[in-house]
From TrEMBL:
It comes from Pasteurella canis. It comes from the Bacteria. Residues 102-194 form the FMN-binding domain. This is Ion-translocating oxidoreductase complex subunit G. Part of a membrane-bound complex that couples electron transfer with translocation of ions across the membrane. It is a single-pass membrane protein. The chain crosses the membrane at residues 6-32. InterPro entries: FMN-bd, Ion_transpt_RnfG/RsxG. Its main location: membrane.
Length: 204
């Protein structure tokens, strides 16, 4: 009987400790959730400004986004689009897309482009490429990704949109061609599909 009482005591003690821990965790969550959300929004704004400079818009870019439903855009792995407007005119787009053929898997990208196909900037959001080789797509490692800025995608220059090893104009990395090739191809494909979508909208 004494053993049963001791077991019940420890069970109640553990339940009480669990209740206290849950209450503390809940309290911390409610105290910090606004700050966490604010920090996430801040980082999102910083990234958007890196691919669509402030002079291109006077709206709240991060609040003017949508998930595409077009089959062509989805087929080209475009996951999200933010529309930049100035004086109520569409001036640029921030496009989240995925290069599926990186050396170690998917590479999440954010690119900014104008309605005429000029790339304003590209940044890598997430990747699993090899440190010291494929990770040169990050701005903290090298400035390679900055080479996309102010390049234009047109039906006449598609051959240029490749790494030099494939006859294009973009540098590859020493010992790592797959990663830059994946990024170049996806930037090109995303821009082309977006341009096609805009042309269809203009014809309607």
């Amino acid at each position: 009987m004494k053993t049963v009482k001791i077991s019940a005591y420890y069970a109640l003690l553990l339940a009480f400790i669990a209740l206290i821990c849950t209450a503390l965790s809940t309290g911390v969550y409610f105290l910090t959730k606004d700050k966490i959300a604010e920090e996430i929004n801040k980082q999102q704004r910083i990234l958007l400004l890196q691919v669509v400079p402030q002079q291109y818009f006077d709206n709240v870019l991060s609040e003017n986004c949508y998930v595409p439903t077009s089959q062509k855009l989805m087929a080209n792995r475009i996951k999200n689009i933010c529309i930049a407007t100035k004086n109520q005119q569409k001036t640029a787009y921030a496009i989240e897309t995925i290069a599926p053929d990186g050396y170690s898997g998917n590479i999440r990208l954010l690119l900014g482009m104008t309605p005429t196909g000029e790339i304003l900037g590209v940044r890598v959001l997430e990747h699993q490429e090899t440190p010291g080789l494929g990770d040169k797509i990050e701005t903290r490692i090298s400035n390679w990704i900055l080479g996309f800025s102010h390049q234009k995608v047109t039906s006449d220059n598609l051959n240029e949109w490749a790494v030099k090893k494939d006859g294009g104009k973009f540098d590859q990395f020493t010992g790592a061609t797959i990663t830059p090739r994946a990024v170049v191809n996806q930037v090109k494909n995303a821009a082309l599909s977006m341009l096609d979508e805009l042309n269809q909208e203009n014809q309607q």
